[in-house]
Amino acid sequence: MELPIELDAASTVPLHRQLYVAIRDAIAGGRVAPGTRLPSTRSMAEALGVSRSTVISSFAQLHSEGYLEATTGSGTYVAGELPDDRIAPHARSPVAGASLRLSTYGASLLDSAPLEPPRIPGNVDFRDGRPAFDAFPFAAWRRYVAADIDAQSDGLDYSPDPAGFPPLRSAIAAHLGTARAIDAHADDVIIVGGSQQAIDIVARVLIEPGDVVALEEPGYVGAQRTFAANGADLRPIAVDRDGLCVDRLDAEAANARLVYVTPSHQFPLGVVLSSERRRALIGWAERVGAVIVEDDYDSAYRYEGRPIPALFGTDTAGRVIYVGTFSKTLFPALRIGYIVVPPSLRRVVLAAKAFSDRQSPLLEQRALAAFMESGDFDRHLRRMRMLYRDRRGALLEGLRATFGADVEVLGESAGMHVVVRLPVRDSPAFVARARAAGVTLMTTDPHRMLGPMPGEFIFGFAQHSEATIRSALAQLGALLAAEHDR
Asked: Which of 32, 41, 50, 364 has its CA 20 to 30 A from that of 114?
């Protein structure tokens, strides 16, 4: 037989690879039928003007993948049964699958924008939640990961406990006891793939379509979308300088099944839920039979006043679910978070975790457990508090110097971001001009259910040096001055 094969000696693709692809595609495309005898390696090499070793190498690869089979003394043939993953391709309609029916949950996702727009390389990005990667203890973390790879062959298998690696859960429980005044045991802690998965699991096990869910306004858009996708009736509750306006719950969400809050550093405004309102919220939940989801996303960083205990630590009725994450204290790509649940919910939350994600990555869990047990985690937090305090100071000083009395700052006492209110008439236009000037800003608008707030921006400061912060603010000051001159 003759194959219409053309090889390009000038190509960067090796000749043996070109020949392999050509024969494979001819077989997979049906142009060479199963059982067809191929020319000998010698005669094919002569016909193509290549070395015999080139043909032998191509044939060997095709043999190993199941396209060819050899018969001693008879020659090389196309295999009678081709590999399942190389069946002949068919043209796909551009609307293939358009008629498939989606679930209510699936349909609710079609109009969902990404939780976070793509980043622009080279821009100073003031979006929230990015820790100081330049200050991460890479050498220490690398040691723990390498030690676990060397010592744990069983780490390649499933964990027998979908709740997570027991030493990590113990380390988290111990940390929460000293840092957040939470009296928890390792059995109360369930490891998940970040706080977003935690919220999703809670929604799935507690929310039926039509259930009322109360959320902060403004509030975390990831929680809003998750509860909405599960069919919840969302009720936005106003936030002021003392946090969630608990006294509005009876009027605006009287029969709520769940209330989602970020009490230690409200997202995005950064205010702290007052002690009086904390007691009132827990009392309200007990009275109406609601569940409180406490998202404690960045409470590790507090710069003014005394540390504030978590809601979970003051709850005696078992109505608070605590959600934590290492995305802010270590790095977002780690994708390790945790849920601390009351005993009545432990079994169902664990089952939901097992069905949605059999286990969180075990290698990272083991490394993190060693990182925490050694004391390196606490030392890292102390260093980051000092670093972030300095960077926060540079931001606050720069805002005052650049904008003077025209600026209002919220949430500066804790966390990794502040909210800044500027005299901007058209926020989207100002964001676009800032982006063109090399500064990426985010407004609070995506987190507001009741409409935008002109001139309100989120400034994440943890990931930027003091010099970078000052330079970017100077750019924004010039833009704002130009806008006012129009």
From this structure: 364
